[in-house]
Design goal:
The complex is a heterodimer. Chain A is mainly alpha-helical. Chain A has 16 helices and four strands. Chain A is 69% helix and 5% strand. Chain B is built from eleven helices and 13 strands. By secondary structure, chain B is α/β, with parallel strands linked by helices. Chain B has a six-stranded mixed β-sheet, with helices on both faces. A four-stranded antiparallel β-sheet of chain B has the order 11-12-10-13, with helices on one face. The chains are: A mainly alpha, B alpha/beta.
Chain lengths: 384, 322
Amino acid sequence: MIFVMLKVMALGLWRDKGGLVLAFLLPPVVFIVFASVFAAGASGKLDLRAGVVDRTASADGRRLTAALSHQLGGRLATYPDQAALLAAIANERVDAGLILSGDLRHDPTPITVLIHPGRRAAGEVLTAQITAVAEKALPDMMTAREIVRLGPVLSLTERQRGRLNGAAAAAPAPPLVARRVLGGGDPIVVYYAGAVSILFLLFSAMQGAMILIEERRGGMRLRLGLSAGGVAPLMAGRMLWLVGLGIAQAFVLFAVAMVVYRIPLMESLGPWLVTAVCAASAAAGIALLVAAACRTREQAHAVGTFVVLILAAVGGSMAPRFLMPAPLQALGWLTPHAWVIEAYQTVLWRRVVNLQALEAWLVLASFGGVGFGLALALESRRKL
Amino acid sequence: MPCPLCRPSDLTAEAKIVLSVQGASRRYGERMALRDVSLQVQAGEVYALIGRNGAGKSTLAKAALGALTLDGGAVRVLDQDPARAAAVRRFIGVAPQEIALYGHMTVAENLAAFATLAGMRGPHAAAIQDAMAETACAGRASQRIDQLSGGWRRRANLAAAIVHGPRLLVLDEPSEGLDAETRAIYRRMVGRLRARGTAILLISHDTDDVTSLADRVGILNAGRLVAEGPPGAMVREAFGTRKELSVRLQTRSEAAARLLTQIGLSPRDGDLDWEGLIADAANRALEIERALLDLDVVIRELTVRPPGLNALIAWAADASPP
């Protein structure tokens, strides 16, 4: 009987081309969009567009502008005056701008960075890049600025100043900071693979669970009520199908992540599978509970959409949890989404099966078990 | 005592009673849907439940299927409570009024699914072929239900009710929306199932169907079983030699209304149509015709016919007010 219900639901999806696209094509596409946006941000590749006004008309100004343009991959536009640059920022043709307005070697603060109020991060990045570019490409200019600053204190003679300038040009200062990106791939890619997978698992499960409501119509419930095994095997069949569908959906999405972003799926296939089963169970349990609790398809659709979107927003499927305020992050642990993300990051990025992973699996399985149990109780008690 | 479920072919005399309802009562809020209803349906018998809308027919059918908890009384199918004993439900089939099939599956896939759900083990191919042959829908075996016309869906709906060889078949308004060909197929099917010993509980508003198919009729009125018996005998017992006489007038006339009321006819849907049961109807019809002509009233139609089940339902309702 369980397998009859499995077959009924499988044929339902197989013969619904729109449902197939929703289940298997849309999630990887959405994942790639999210991952490309947030992974690029996390890796520092912001594709920043900047504008510059060079009032100095000096060799240092031209050198700095050229080096910065090279650093930004050519996305540095030159404007004739401040008004034009401000207009470009206001119209969002550039994310931030800089004005070279004084002697770069002698003035205390010769560069002003103009920042769009809605893109402060872009201003911070541009400021940091100007400093980095100046240290790397114009060491003589930077040393000259130090000499100008410290010269009066050290009572340097003109000859000493000249020798220091020459030494700086010959032996640029080593960078103060060395950077080392830790191994293990990009956690934000794993984050979004998990976040998008649970979002669509829940969507598909809600769609699949609607069969509960369809079967209450048109005398079908009378006919199904005569099934020899009663309600439990029918519900078990539906649950099993939704879990299987969820695992297949997650596999397709993570396979795309493996190919595009080199997520180590095959190296951690076992723990990944356990996580996928637990995540699919959680989605199936919640979806069956919503369908069992609702009386009509319209009601289930409204409640289902509300549940899917609220859980996704709070649980971190829409925006990274680490960007959320602390109370919202704490609230997120009440959703399966946060646990799914946590579990996938643990097994695929940290590449361990530890207490964190076990805890996440247990919580997700509980979502599934409790949801299924309550749905079964509601369906069994539902009278004609 | 032998278990009828374990050896369904070895029925004892008692087990010939397939459906037994004893003192069934059911309340929906303030309304009593069933009041102390008792009836029995034997193997090879077609028992038709008739009555006006809201009389309790569907409630009784649901109780027979074990889909409803009674407030009082008991329902037994093959001597077991279908609401509690899951095993007995495999011997019950139902063709609900609405199409109860999966639209995205073919006729054959639906039949296979419902055969398995009914507890049939092993390959079902022969049973599916039999059910499709019985309902003449084999020609659409591999077509999806949602791509079939209404008549073919009805046939498939009937096939799904009998695919597992039920001992009790509940048919809820089975002839509604049937074309003439499908209606004939359905009637033949009922006849053959009866001959094979299937007990059939038929719920229908179609008095032609009930008259031609039912061995016994139970009339429900406001939840109470007010009359029961073979349809012909019940009509004879209720009306004797009286006939149903109906008159349709061209125009309204107070004098005609007085005359028809005096004779014993009652107005129906306004005061142009009149009907009633009267003795010696053939002679009285001629008298009525002459009297109305004397009053210059034009008669559009005047018919005399033997009373049928509709008259019986009305008679039963009048004889036993709620």
